[in-house]
Every structure is written in structure tokens, then in C-alpha cells.
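Q: A reviewer asked whether we had any structural model of the full assembly, not just the individual parts. We don't, so I'm hoping you can provide one. Inputs are below.
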Amino acid sequence: MTAIVAPNAERVADVPERAQRRAIVAIARKELGDAVRSRWFWMWAIAFALLAAVLASVALPGSRIAGSASFGRTAASLVALVQIIVPLMGLTLGAQSIAAQRESGALRFLLSHPVNRTEAFWGIHLGLSVALLAAASAGFGAAGLVTAIRSGGAQAGAFLRITVLAWVLVIAMLGVGMLISVFARRASAALGIAVFVWLAFVFLGDLGLMGTAVATRMPVDALFFATVANPIEAFRLAALGSFVGSLDILGPSGTYAVDALGPALMPVIVGVLVLWMILPAVGAWIRFRTAKDV
Amino acid sequence: MIHIEELTKRYGNLTVLDRFAMDVAEAEAVALWGPNGAGKTTVVRCILGLVDYDGTVEVDGLDAVSRGKAVRSRVGYVAQELSFYDEMAVVDVLDFSASLRGFGTERVDEVIDLFHLGDHRLKRIAELSGGLKQRLALASALIPDPPILLLDEPTSSLDAHSREEAIELFERLRDEGRTILLTTHHMEEMGMLVDRVIAMEGGRIVTECAPAALADELGLRVWLHILVDAENTAKAQEALAADGFDSRLNAAGIVVEVPAQRKGEALKVLYRAGVEIEDLEVWS
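A: Here is a predicted structure for the entire assembly that you could use as a starting point for your response.
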């Protein structure tokens, strides 16, 4: 039998320094590999790409004649699609991340290596982020290809801005999902909470807010800020603003926003999205880092 | 090499470790022995920094909390519950483990050869038997050639043959001068592998002694299941009773309760009485 002792007896001594540099990247690569092996991931990516391509095709009949109006229809359709699918992708993948590994014992295996919890958390976050960005890009790539073929790529800048906003949204939702994951005891519970949160963001935020506004005669400024506080609504406003150029189309609330915030309007909305991208992830990291047991 | 002092761990109102203390010297092999729930696994998890605790845990002079990464880089760990990533292949798990420790694929190939995993390198973890998972866990633990091994019930999921192989391997690892902390409830493993046993119950140390002395210290008893010819059962029981051994009959043979260190004496009694033993099992 071969000797168990490693040929280089000094290996152990230099492990910590080398491992420190590589841990996050190694964990991220593993998470990305896991996502790519997952049927769910492919289901999301393919469904999103197909729907986006179909929407782009349907919204662009005779687009060489219709010009920017046709692009507006495509963009509006894409924004509606992103609002539904992209948050669900980020939330469910994030919710499964830590909770599933904790439940299976794999997290204990990971943390028995020379890896600290900060590296483990951000490694997982990085790997899932890359996977989600790839899935979101597949959808936009499909839609972009159809749009470019049929309308000549005249609106490439606006299209790219919406793509970047969708990236920010999916990373924000990943952070929310991971926040759920670090608190949940079981992966199934994390998934259930993630779906509920998705429903709350997508439907309750919209319909509930409208109902509340009518019932309580909510002032227009409060209505605007309550709307913007919802990351999915913030994405919608930012995306619409990026290709329509004005939020007046949103009615009194939009008109108020344009009047009150002026040129600061878009930075405020995008800032809200960026905060959603940062704060839940940081909250999840703090919880994961300070959790007592694995 | 391992120094633990005043180690206390509570889960809510349940105290799992109660001011536990021990020292393991360099190149020493020590067993934590005790029933389920004694706190053996929790000691190992505290050393690895996997759980929060009160007290002091140091490995190679490094605090297990503030220098957790450095501690874990010196330790190879085989868990009781063998959990990896079910969808990954054997070679991918080892590559991942190696990359976290700063090693390349050459060392992965070495441990794959060492643990005879070559035929299984592309199998998914979910497809592996308990014995293969155990070999994978050991292969992963030995990638960095660590000076310290924490083996938490390392033979619990192995069949008799694989267990024999594992024990041989542990003997070699011990003989190479590694510090070994083993948790087990198998007496025979301790006898073969360790220099010292720390017996635990309810999160506390009950006694600390050489493996051979443990049975006497704790008054442990085992059951011999002896198969003899049907005509000789009465004669065998009489002979055993004459020498002070309690016995009873079951469907297949005679069951004799003996002190763990006196198994041979009961057999000598039967030999002297002229009773031929057809088969024998030891239940502990």
C-alpha cells in the first residue's frame, strides 16, 4: 500500500494562507456547478429564455415600420415577464442554499475545512449569483436576439439597461432568499416562505397597496414611496423609466414622483434596488456568521 | 496537542457537556467512549469550531474559536454522519476538499489510489455504499496529510470486512505518529487502536484509563451466545453454574453473562467439562 504521508511534509504549514485566497472561489465554483447540474436551474433558464423569445416575437410584428413603439411593446412585455419569473428564481435558489446544506449535513462537511463562515457564505452567494446572472442573461439573450433580428438593434442601449436592472433584481432576490435560508430550520420551510414572500412582492404589494390606498385615502407621496419600497415595483419603475423616459405614464403617483424628485428620481429608484441587493445579503451573512451551531 | 478545559455546551436547558476537560499529547491515540448522548460527538464538534461553547479548546496551541481556520487546517475529520454533496461525483468532492485546503489534483489522485477509489471516481455520492462513503471521508480527511485525526464513530456504517480494513488503516495512521482522537462505543476497536480511553456519560468524564482496564473499571459485562450439541446443554449449564456463571437457554443455544474481561474463563469451564462448542458469538 502507498504511504499515507504526503510526499511534501511541509504542506500542512502553508495551507491556511493559500486556502484563505482560494476558499471563496472554490466554494463559488462548486455552487455554480451544483446549479448547472440542477434540473430546476435549467427549467428556469429555458422557460425564461423561451418566454422572452416568444414575447419579443409577438410584440414585434412589422417592427421595421413601427420602430421605437414596437420596441416599447417588447420592453414592456419583458419587464412584465421579469417581474414574475426572475424574483422567483432568485428567491427559491437563495432559500434552498444554506438550509438544504444544513439539513443534509453538507454544511458541516464544508465548515470542517479551513474555511470560515464569512468565506462560506460569500462563496455560496457568489456562485449562485453567477448562476442566476447566467440564467437571466439567457432570457435576455433570447429576447435580444429576436429583437435585433427583427428591429435592427436600434434600441440596444435601452435593452441593455433593462438587462442590468434585471441582474440587480435577481441578486436582490437571492439575498432575500438567503436571508430566509439562514433563519429556516428546514429547506422545505425555507422554500415555502420564499414562495410566500414572492407572492407578497408580486401580488400583495401591488393589489394590496392599491386597496390600502383607496381604503385609507393614502396621500400620493406615501403611495409612491410605498410602491418604490417594493423591489419588484422599483425594478418596474426603473425599467419603464429607462425606455419610456418619463414616469408620467404611471398616473398621479408618477407625476408626483417626477415633480418632487426631478432628476433625482431614477437614482432614488435604482438606489432602492441596490439597497435591496445589499441589505438582505448582509443581514443573512451576519446571521450566518453569528449563528451558534451548524 | 489537544487541550480542553472547562468545556460546557448547552442546547437550551439540556447540558450536553459539563465542564469537560482533557489533554491529548502529540502522537497519542485517545478514545472517547460512552453510550449515545454521552457528549462524544459534541467534543469533536467543539474542537472543529462547528458549535458554540463555553470554556477553552486549543489545538497545537491555537484557540479553536479565534484561530479556527488554522486549527482545521491541522485536523482531518471523519464525521459520524457521512454527508457530502449527493449530486457530486467522488472525484469532484475530493477536488473540492483539496481546493479548500490549497491542494491540487495530484494529491487527489494520490488519495484516490491510496483508498482504492479509482473504480468509483465518477460515481455520484448518492450511489455509494456506506463503506465507500467512509473511504471517501477518510480520503478527504487525509488530503492535507494532517498531524491530527478526529474520527467520530468511523466504523459505524461499515460491514465486518470493511471495518477490519479501516482498523488496519487507523493502526498505520497511528504508527505514523499522528495524534488521534476517536469516538466509539466498540470496546475491541479501542483495545487495538488507542493508548488511553476517556469514558463519558452525561457530558462528564466517568473514568480515564488504559483500554484493557476499562471493562474492570466500569464493571462492563458481555453476553456469550454459545451453541453446543442439544444433548450437552444441561451438562454445560450445570458446569457454568458450578463456577458461578449465570446462563439461560434461548432458541438456538446458551446465553452466558460474563464480565467483559473474563470471556475466556466461561469457555475454559465448558472445555474442562468436556462440552464441545460448535459456535460462539459475543454480544456487548
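A: Points you may want to mention in the reply: The two ends of chain A are 36 Å apart (CA to CA). Residues 6-17 of chain A have pLDDT under 50 and may be disordered.
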